[in-house]
Design goal:
about 140 residues; mainly alpha; about 80% helix
Length: about 140
Amino acid sequence: MRTLRLSDFAQEGRRHIEPFREHLKRQHHAALDRLLNNHELYISLLRRFVGDYSSVASGLAGDLSYGRKEEAQENLHRFKSIAGAIGADKLQIFSTELESCLRDELDYDVALVRFNDEFDRLFRAVREGLQSAAHP
């Protein structure tokens, strides 16, 4: 029976992070630094992003179409945390921009399109990365 060392776990964690390197560019390094290089926690956050936040964009569209700007703003505020935690800096910036437009009662159409485009791109990439990590 082979004894597992801490370095074995670190290597295994890096293997699971590999599918996300291209999509999150260098941002995943900063996210891992904030998480004290805890690869398991990072993967857990990515799973949470895909599992718990898959309907964020459609939920925002629904809130806004019914004039529930305050609710949309609150949801964006909560969402920014997970975006920052996984290193999705661009998505976090677009979330902040959209939240500011709603708070300041400015036209939010362009900000919403930017948010939706980046959310869709990143969501697909993370979902595909998780699938490829699960089936190497």
